[in-house]
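Lecture notes, part 5. Sequence design as translation. It can be helpful to think of inverse folding as translation between two languages: the language of shapes and the language of residues. The source text, in structure tokens, appears below.
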């Protein structure tokens, strides 16, 4: 009986420990999803505005906004126990501003057929601020929880965000006739971002040591090979709808890779 009691007590401690570990990990994932969803929503707005209010991209905006809301709701529940309540509250406040501007800009496109340049510019800057707030909260969580994602997971997440940022800037250039107002929020040229992506992708590839992960990396590399040519030559025959499609698949591959790493 005593040995059974000891076993059950050890099992309970293990469950508590696993739960405590899982909570910061889930919160990190929520913050990552916010960064991706916010940037993806802006990309889809550029497509929406540049392609005469195409309903496909209006629906994609809605899905991206919902993904952000879902991640934010989860983060709000988890943040108090993980010491980043204030950081998540700051994200929420900025998100409300962003959401309002997104709705105004979508309404302008539906009702007038063209956006207000000033409001679109402001929305782009708010997206950058949102990503920065989520990134700072992510760093704070890592420090306060003493839980570090593996190098593979972190590199996958960083590359997924960089991919979204590249696609956002490319789609702005490829669909907008409003000049530079949409571009340059990341403070880097598309060429520099493409160079960084290629370098970090090679670094990630060098870390891979399983056949399944190598297959995922091969899929990413094949899609990036097409995208890279378009990104580096964005002034020649821009194909934003194809780049956006490849972006979605590449980001999905990074998330698939992350899940595979977590399962092993």
């Amino acid at each position: 009986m005593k040995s059974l009691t000891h076993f059950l007590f050890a099992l309970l401690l293990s469950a508590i420990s696993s739960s405590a570990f899982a909570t910061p990990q889930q919160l990190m994932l929520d913050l990552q999803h916010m960064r991706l969803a916010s940037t993806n929503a802006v990309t889809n707005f550029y497509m929406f505005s540049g392609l005469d209010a195409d309903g496909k991209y209006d629906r994609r905006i809605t899905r991206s906004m919902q993904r952000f809301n879902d991640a934010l709701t989860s983060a709000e529940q988890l943040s108090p126990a993980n010491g980043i309540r204030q950081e998540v509250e700051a994200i929420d406040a900025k998100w409300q501003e962003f959401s309002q501007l997104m709705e105004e800009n979508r309404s302008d496109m539906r009702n007038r057929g063209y956006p207000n340049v000033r409001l679109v510019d402001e929305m782009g800057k708010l997206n950058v601020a949102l990503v920065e707030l989520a990134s700072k909260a992510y760093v704070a969580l890592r420090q306060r929880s003493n839980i570090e994602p593996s190098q593979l997971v972190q590199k996958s997440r960083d590359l997924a965000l960089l991919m979204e940022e590249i696609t956002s800037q490319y789609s702005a250039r490829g669909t907008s006739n409003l000049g530079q107002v949409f571009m340059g929020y990341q403070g880097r040229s598309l060429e520099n971002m493409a160079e960084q992506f290629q370098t970090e992708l090679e670094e990630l590839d060098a870390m891979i040591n399983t056949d399944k992960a190598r297959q995922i990396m091969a899929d990413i590399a094949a899609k990036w090979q097409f995208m890279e040519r378009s990104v580096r030559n964005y002034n020649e025959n821009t194909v934003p709808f194809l780049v956006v499609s490849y972006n979605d698949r590449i980001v999905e591959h990074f998330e698939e890779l992350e899940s595979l790493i977590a399962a092993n």
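The translated text above is only one of many valid answers, since several sequences can fold into similar shapes. The first helix runs from residue 2 to 50.
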